Amino acid sequence: MATQYQNLSEYDADSMPDKAKVSEQQYAIVVADWNPTITHTLLNGAIATLVDGGVKQSQIKVIHVPGTFELTYAAKQLQEDYYCLIENKKVHKYVAVIVLGCVIQGDTPHFDYVCQGVTYGIAKLNTSADGCPVIFGVLTTNTLQQALDRADGIHGNKGIEAAITAIKMANIIW
Q1: In the chain, domain spans
Q2: In terms of Cα–Cα distance, which of 14, 57, 49 is closest to 158?
Q3: What percent of the chain has pLDDT over 90?
Q4: Is the distance from CB of 79 to CB of 131 less than 8 angstroms?
Q5: pLDDT tens digit string along 105-128?
Q6: How far is 123 from 52, CA to CA, in rounded Å?
Q7: How far apart are CA 102 and CA 70, in angstroms?
Q8: What angle do CA 166, 171, 30 make, to 5 degrees?
Q9: Catalytic residue among 40, 64, 92, 110
């Protein structure tokens, strides 16, 4: 995560999985259209990083949802999308799903409910026994400036970090 202490948007490309393997994989991104100045910047960073990491542009599916709370539902649908059953096991279409959103603190507890709901929902998807990893790229900030700082600002681009995480998690070797 990008913080004042560490900016993970700058990464060592040599530490990434083999591009030849990654080029055969499909990734999905779900982006909230609420706060689009922020979320679409995160999306652009994620797509560019996936492509830089070896993913073909045609292997990236992007789904837009109205807001951050809706990310969980769309991620679940993509996580469950699979090609076929082989020996009673699902062959998943996507090796990872990235969710991108931005919730900025306001004057009501709405912020708390949305942040808790999406965090819990994505965490629950990641405990699914047969699902692909769902990468949490949601900014939860107190101010618009903090969000801008994490969407190509002084703290990097959380979309880049989410894409790096997706490639690494999709290619974990046990």
Answers
A1: 35-170
A2: 49
A3: 71
A4: yes
A5: 988 889 999 999 999 999 999 997
A6: 27
A7: 12
A8: 25
A9: 110
